[in-house]
Amino acid sequence: MKKHISRLLSLLLVAAFVVMLFPAFAVPASAASPDNVVKRLQRMKEKYPDGHYWNHYVSEPSEAGDVLYNSGDERFAESTSSERSCDYHGQASAKYYVGKRDCNYFDGGMQCVGFARRVFYEVFDGHRCSGLTPRKDKENIQPGDYVRFAFHENDVYGHSVIVTEVNGTKIKVVECNSGGNCRISWGGEYDLNVGVPAVGGGNYPFSYFCHADNYDEVNSLDVDFYAELYYPHGGCNLRSNNGNVELAAASNGFDPAVIWHFVWTPEGYEITNLQDWNCLDAALRGTEPGTNVQTYEDNDTPAQRWILRRDSGGRENCYNLAASYRTSLVLDVYWEGQAPGTNVQLFTSKSNAAQAFELRRSGYIEAILGAMRK
Q1: pLDDT in tens for each of the 374 residues of the chain?
Q2: Which of 26, 21, 100 is nearest to 57 (CA)?
C-alpha cells in the first residue's frame, strides 16, 4: 500500500476543489443481501486454508485433545498444520499423544463441531454458537450460519458445517474432518433435504442451524473502506497528531490525519491513518482503563485489531470500537471532552457519549480512490 503514498498525497491536493461537492455521510446499513458476511468468509480462507488440518502438536499430556475438551482449554483454537492430520481419533491415554498431532478444542466441541464454531466466532466478532437457540426453519439459512446434521440435537455423532453459499435447498460449506482427520475443506456441497454421509452408511439428516444474533450488524460493514471517525458529542473528528490520537475540529476541508482505512481481519479491523500510515494502536497492549491510544507502525498484533459494534447506548449511526484482546475496553474521549486536542484512550464500556463514533465516508475520499483506480 505504501507504494501509493506519493500518488495519494498528490490526489489529496486535487481533492480540495471537490470537497464542497461531496459532503460526508455515515456508513449506511446493508441491504438484505449477505454480501459482507460472504466477504468475511472468503477472507477466512487465508487463515484456514483448504487442505490444511485443524490440529496442533502435543508437547505434553495436558495438551492432548481430550484433556483440552474436559478442561475447556481453547488455547490451540487457531492452530493448523499444512502437512499432518491428527495421528489418531479414538480413545487413548493423554501420554500417547505426546509427540503427535491431536484435535483442537473450541466452544464445547472438537473436530467438525469445534472448527465450525471457531469460524462462526471469528466471522461474527466473538459471538458463540453455544449461546444461541437452535432453529429448524432451514428455508431461512444464510451464508455464515452454523448447520448441524444429526439424528437428533444432542447426538454426539453427526457433522457440523458453516454455510458459504445457498442455492435453494443446496448449500456450499466450509468444514473440518471431511476427507481426513480434521482436514479443512472449502466448497463441499450438501442438500438440506438429503443430509450428509453418516459413519457406517446412510445419511445424517438436517437437525438444526444457528444464526448469529449480530448478523445484521456484521453485514452492515464492508471489509475494506475509508472513513472519518466522527465524534458527535463534540462535533469533532479523531486524528493522528504526531502519533497520538486526539480530537480535531471538523471542517469542510480535507485532512489525511482524520481519514482512516478500515480492513477487516479474522481478529478484528486493522485501522490505518492516511497521514502517517500507521495503525490505530492501544499503547503497550494495555489492559487497564486509561491506556493511551496512538498510531504505531503495523506490527500485526492484537493491540492493532478493533471490534466495531453498534453503540451500546443506542445512538443512531454510532459505533463503539472495542480492543480485540479485551473487548470490555473501548475507544473513549477523556472525560467526555469536546474540545480539539482532547486525548483519546481506552476505558471500560459505559454506554456514554464519550464512546460513540460515526464512521463517516466522505465524498472527497471516494473521489481520491476513484482517481487512484484509473
Answers
A1: 444 444 455 545 444 444 444 455 555 444 457 899 999 999 999 999 999 999 999 999 999 999 999 999 999 999 999 889 999 988 889 999 999 999 999 999 999 999 999 999 999 999 999 999 999 999 999 999 999 999 888 888 899 999 999 999 999 999 999 877 899 999 999 999 999 998 888 999 999 999 999 999 999 999 999 999 999 999 999 999 999 999 999 876 678 999 999 999 999 999 999 999 999 999 999 999 999 999 999 999 999 999 999 999 999 999 999 999 999 999 999 999 999 999 999 999 999 999 999 999 866 666 666 565 55
A2: 100
Cα three-residue angle 12-364-29, rounded to 5 degrees: 140
Q: Which domains does the chain have, with CATH numbers?
A: 2-29+221-373 (2.80.10.50), 35-216 (3.90.1720.10)
**Whole-prediction pTM:** 0.89
Sheet holding 206-210, edge to edge: 184-191, 170-176, 159-167, 146-149, 206-210
